[in-house]
Structure formats: structure tokens, C-alpha cells
Amino acid sequence: MGEIEQLQKIITDSDNIVFFGGAGVSTESGIPDFRSVDGLYHQKYDYPPETILSHSFYMSKTEEFYRFYRDKMLCLTAKPNAAHKKLAELEQAGKLKAIITQNIDGLHQAAGSKVVLELHGSVHRNYCRHCGKLFDARYILNSTGIPTCDACGGQIKPDVVLYEEGLDQKTLEDAVRYISEADVLIIGGTSLAVYPAAGLIDYYRGNKLVLVNKSATPMDARADLLVQGSIGEIFSKIEV
């Protein structure tokens, strides 16, 4: 039995699946990945992305932060790909209980998924640091300089977890609960190099750990099933 057939059987036999995903789920929708060869590292900015996307840089060089953020982080024309769509179908069929994602692009929700835990926040939520009013990503994209609140003039911050910032505690707790109770844990499109997100996998207690990725990860040896290749192509072959 090939890997896809094995994956199909695991999915067919379970109604308590949790999906944990990273940047590789979105790259097939045209969203750049930080760590891939042609990702954000090869851009022409005075600072590396990890510096620009840090809390201290946001506080000290806010305008430069937003110049990069508008240019590189707001891919608002991106559409859900086959992986996003299949995961939404699996949820609708009562098989998938939750998606836990490191992505901030909102594509899982755009595909129709309801239970999406966003470990690193979302570009689609932005809030005034003064009065708390919420703004969508389009408002940020269409602003210039440092975006300000149209109600009180306060500075707007994306609801995205920057480097040096902690993850949302409730989101983490929910992720731990879903993973620890899951029958099947499918991990896709992540190098599993970013902590604390990668550490969540340690809470999985089952024996159906599936890894779907283009390249090797530090967790490959722990997987019960390893499927290498394009996550969109692999998921498009799965029947719900």
C-alpha cells in the first residue's frame, strides 16, 4: 500500500483528526515562506525579516516595520489551495476537529474552516492600541506611513505575534487540548523548527502521527506515516 492509500485509510477510519500546519500550506497559494530558498530572506531591506518583524523593531522603527509589512506580509489576493479546501471538507464531514496553524493569512477560514487556532495571530485583525477599535487588512494596506485609528487617531498594531512576543495563552491551551485528545495528528507544511509551536506535538498521545512535507524535518523519525511531496497535490487525492 502506497503512502497516499495509507493516509486515505487513516482518514477514512477516524473522526477525531487534528491538523497542524505551517508555511508550506500557504506557499502553494503564492504566499512567501520565510525559510525557503526564495522566501523573504532574499529581499532588499536594511534588516533581516526576523529583525523587522520583532516587537522592539515595531516599537522603535514603526514606519519601516509597516513598509515591509505592507510589501511582504499582506498577500490579500491569495486564494485557498487544494489543501485548505480539503481540510474544510474534512471538518464539514465531522472528521477534522481543529486546524492549528502557524500561518497568519486567514486562508483556512477563507476555505470554509470553522475551528482554526491561529498560533501567530492574523493579518486580518488589527487594533488601535489606544481605543481598541478593530480594522481589517485592507485598511492597513491602503494606509500610508504609520496607520492610525479613524476614531481616536491612535496607532494601529496588527494582531500578529511578533518575534519577542508571547503566544496567546488561550489559543495555546486549546491547541494542547485538541492535540492531546486527537486520534490522528496530521502535520503539514512545516519545518517544525519554530518554538513554542513545534513543542505542541509532544502532547500527542496517539499512534497515528502523519507528516506531510516537501523536505525532511527533525520529527520524521517519530512519524507513523511520512508522505513527502506537495501538500496540495497529496490532499487533492484524498476522498472525504
From TrEMBL:
Positions with a binding annotation for NAD(+): A23, T27, F34, R35, Q102, I104, D105, H120, T190, S191, N213, I231
Reactions catalysed according to its record: N(6)-acetyl-L-lysyl-[protein] + NAD(+) + H2O = 2''-O-acetyl-ADP-D-ribose + nicotinamide + L-lysyl-[protein]
InterPro entries linked: DHS-like_NAD/FAD-binding_dom, NAD-dep_sirtuin_deacylases, Sirtuin, Sirtuin_cat_small_dom_sf, Sirtuin_class_U, Ssirtuin_cat_dom
UniProt keyword GTP-binding, yes or no: no
Domain Deacetylase sirtuin-type: 1-240
Tree of life domain: Bacteria
Family to which the UniProt record says this protein belongs: Belongs to the sirtuin family. Class U subfamily.
Descriptive protein name: NAD-dependent protein deacetylase
The species this protein was found in: Roseburia yibonii
Gene: cobB
